[in-house]
Amino acid sequence: MKIQVVDLSKRFDQNQVLKNLNITFTDGKVNCVMGVSGVGKTTLINILMDLIKQDTGEIHGLKGSQIAAVFQEDRLIEHLDAMKNIQLVCDKTITEEVIEQEFRLVGLEEYKNKPVRELSGGMKRRVTVVRAILAKSDLIIMDEPFKGLDEKLKKQVMEYVRIRTIGKTVIIVTHEKDEVQALGGELILLTQDKKPE
Amino acid sequence: MKFRRQCKKYGVKILVLCFWLLLWEILSRVVNKEILLAPPIAVIQTLGRLSMSLSFWQTILFSSARIILGFLLALILGIAMAILSYRSRIFFELISPMMKVIKATPVASFIILALIWIHSKNLSILISFLMVLPLIFTNILQGIRSTDGKLLQMAKVFKISWNKKITAIYVPAVIPYFISACSVGLGFCWKAGIAAEVIGLSTGSIGWRLYEAKLYWMTKELFAWTIVIIIISILFEKLVMQLIKLIDIRGGDPQ
Predict the structure, then answer these.
(1) Interchain CB contacts (distance < 8 Å): A and B
(2) What does pTM read for this prediction?
(3) What is the full DSSP assignment across A74-96?
(4) What is the ipTM of this complex?
(5) If you measure CA to CA, which chain A residue comes closest to B168?
């Protein structure tokens, strides 16, 4: 699934966030979008997820596709436990055993039945990563998925994401170059003039 | 520890009840006229005597069935109208002034007006319905509008089915507003329903028995029937709250 962003522009009041942006995301690869704060990374993925509309420009290759996401905020249902949060977005083929197995890989096995509101920030982040991986999707979008994880956990979760996304089209927003390397991703650099290098 | 806490809690409640009963007893002795203020023991005896007759229970059933029916109709229609108002701005604009009028109109005006349209026997259904409807509508709509937009966006991206979205996202957001509406609405519907029965002289109702007691200066009966209304109102509120708790627990489960 090849996704093409053509001449995309978005303005919030007086602030031109994206201007005539052109990007092609490689099919079946991890595409890492990098850039300084305020350059429009989150705006770009919000447009891709159809959460906001662009002012001008087109996106090709996304119509009718199923997206799974890790949002900048966790967006978990706080009163439900980690297991139920995952089940909410998955179909019946993803059994409790499958989810447990994934939790084990990111060090969450002991917390699967705890309400999410009782989990730490790092634990919540891992739940959101597992949720995006297990949900049925054609495209996975992750906005800073390793935020709030310590170095050891970050390595563990990055390795988990790398293995689980082999052959899938993934767009990851990140600030760290080492994450791009660890994930074997292709770098797309957004700059202030809104043109990728 | 828990047992001791429970004993303390109920002990305090019993002491408070004893205080008010004692005050009532003292006042009735000061007044010293049963027709003006019946003493608590006499009222309880009257209540016991009344409860021995079949007509007592028939009267309770008559009023309860109608007031509860009015409440349930308001609940169903209020929720449906709130959902429609959330979905359609036009519907909200259309319905909003009607709700404001119902809220602002004195209950007595409704009762008198309704007496022209319907039989007094069914008056309490309409009145309790009208008293509860705006409350349920306003609170449920407010609850739906308070739902976390970011969770709804998450549901949109993951294409979560509407039934899972309702049980996992909307219901937990609406429940606190629903509890508040039911709690206030239940008190309202009993007060207004009984008032409608008294004004409409609905034969066989609690309101009718109250009117009868007033007409023949049977103060003990008047007090006894008032206690009956309070007890049924509290019991009904407890029952509804238990049912809501059940929905709240089940509402969290997306399966």
Answers:
(1) 48
(2) 0.82
(3) ----TTSBHHHHHHHHS-TTS-H
(4) 0.92
(5) A77
